[in-house]
Amino acid sequence: xxxxxxxxxxxxxxxxxxxxxxxxxxxxxxxxxxxxxxxxxxxxxxxxxxxxxxxxxxxxxxxxxxxxxxxxxxxxxxxxxxxxxxxxxxxxxxxxxxxxxxxxxxxxxxxxxxxxxxxxxxxxxxxxxxxxxxxxxxxxxxxxxxxxxxxxxxxxxxxxxxxxxxxxxxxxxxxxxxxxxxxxxxxxxxxxxxxxxxxxxxxxxxxxxxxxxxxxxxxxxxxxxxxxxxxxxxxxxxxxxxxxxxxxxxxxxxxxxxxxxxxxxxxxxxxxxxxxxxxxxxxxxxxxxxxxxxxxxxxxxxxxxxxxxxxxxxxxxxxxxxxxxxxxxxxxxxxxxxxxxxxxxxxxxxxxxxxxxxxxxxxxxxxxxxxxxxxxxxxxxxx
Length: 383
Ligand code: SOE
Prior knowledge:
Number of domains: 2
Radius of gyration: 21 Å
CATH class of the largest domain: Alpha Beta
Strand order of the largest sheet: 15-14-13-12-6-11-10-7-16
Distance between the termini: 37 Å
CATH topology of the largest domain: Dihydrodipicolinate Reductase, domain 2
Helix content: 25-40%
CATH architecture of the largest domain: 2-Layer Sandwich
Largest sheet: 9 strands, mixed
Order of helices and strands: HEHEHEHEHEHEHHEEEEEEEEEHHE
CATH superfamily of the largest domain: Dihydrodipicolinate Reductase, domain 2
Strand content: 25-35%
Structural class: alpha/beta
Shape: globular
Bound molecules: alpha-L-sorbopyranose
């Protein structure tokens, strides 16, 4: 694993727990964790259960006893590490968004395609696909239970940046993160909306806003941000992304991503409306899925609260007895499970780097649209 921050903790949990609950064709061994700060990396290794540490990711890529590289660093280093790892014959799991630009994402997708021809696979970590209620929402749509899909509403709302004193962490710097709320959490909204509906965005019209233009420079990182210094620096990314879009199956969508939605902690809400029904999901209530069946007899209609905690639901048979719920971290175990099953089975895991590239193209189209005063902008590659 390259990186040891918040996502490093989440992925470590996934690698450690997945083989203990799921029957996997191979058991991941947590061999090496890499970080630039030797002391912090050693602490992370101890805490999360990695056997060895290194301060240069090239050490991981060079080792013969390492088969998988998991990239959980800020976006600016994804392209270099992922391509080197794939060329060295390592399977790669890379955190979202795939890269900071379409150009980088394209290079990664090309490297992944070449590697796949040699049986070496790459996957991008859009983990929320693996929340059982979200996977089940996709299954319901695919079964035709919603009829023709007409609308999707996806809002990803957090508030950890409301306070202007929160310092300039890497997620607020374009050269490190690529974009702000747009790429950090808007990318999740795009991926999950496309995953659940089975449709891809073809054009968008959007706007971006940066409410707090300067913040204290970071003194020491911790969690999503850290402690502030006395100096100020420029915020170079968006605080809010809002856009509408058309999808290739005829649906239209509205999207909102912001880390400044006062009072909303991790509210990732998706609603899909179809000719025969609708579904409604909120990550803050992730064991539930709302399902409305418009074909039910009049008088009996209404959103049903499905508790997605039964052995019949995706991933659930590996966990607890009926009715016992899961949390945020389980998505990472499901991601590790799916990755290992596909790689060992010689199958391309999804979402692939090509899927990550397509999301990157949507992000770029939103940026172009916002720059041009919200003009409709085609997603490159789909027109
Ligand atoms: C911060 O906004 C963040 O940690 C994102 O970077 C993650 O992708 C998301 O899962 C939770 O929020």
